[in-house]
Amino acid sequence: MTSLSVLADPAATEAFGARLATLARPGDVITLAGPLGAGKTSIARGLLSALGLAGEAPSPSFAIVQPYAPPEVSVPVLHVDLYRIDDPAEIEELGLDEALADSLLIIEWPERAPGMWPDALALSLTIEPDGSRALTAEVPAPWKARWRQI
Question: By its UniProt entry, which InterPro entries does this protein fall under (predicted)?
C-alpha cells in the first residue's frame, strides 16, 4: 500500500513524527529517505519528543547510531544515520538486527542498505517548489491497520 501526504512546514513535519510515535513499537523499523534538508531528522525528532525525549535530538550523522532508552524515552529507540556508510557490510557491525528484538529502529538514508529491512515502514520525502514536503509512505502488511490511524 502506498500513501501520499503533504507536510506544509517544519512544524507539520515534526507533528507527523509525533503522530507516528503513537503507533510505533519495539520491533518496528521506520526508514526515512530523501535529499539533505528534506525533513528526515525532523520526523525523527517529532517522534522522539512524543516518546518523552526532553530537548532536541541530535542528528546521528557523525555517531551513526544514537541510542535512547527508558526513562529518557518510553521505549528503546535507535536513531541511525547511514549517510556515511560506504559498504553495506559495515552495517552488520552496528548490531541493528540484535537491537531490533526490543527497540524501535529509525533509519535515515536506508538506500545505503538496500533490501535490509523489507518489512519497514518506508517513508520518503521530497522538497516541493513551494517549500512544503511531499511524503510518500510504502506501508507493509504489519503497519496497514495502524497506518489508517495516521
Answer: P-loop_NTPase (IPR027417), T6A_TsaE (IPR003442)
Per-residue pLDDT of the chain (150 residues; tens, 9 = 90+): 777 889 999 999 999 999 999 999 999 999 999 999 999 999 999 999 999 999 888 888 888 999 999 999 999 999 999 998 888 788 888 888 888 889 999 999 999 988 889 999 999 999 999 999 999 999 999 898 999 888
Who contacts 39 (Cβ-Cβ below 8 Å, separation ≥6)? Answer: 7, 10, 13, 125, 133
Is the pTM of the predicted complex or chain greater than 0.90?
Answer: yes
* Cis peptide bond upstream of 71, omega within 30: yes
Q: Count the Cβ atoms, other than its own, within 10 Å of residue 129.
A: 5
Please identify, in words, the CATH class of the domain defined by 2-147: alpha beta
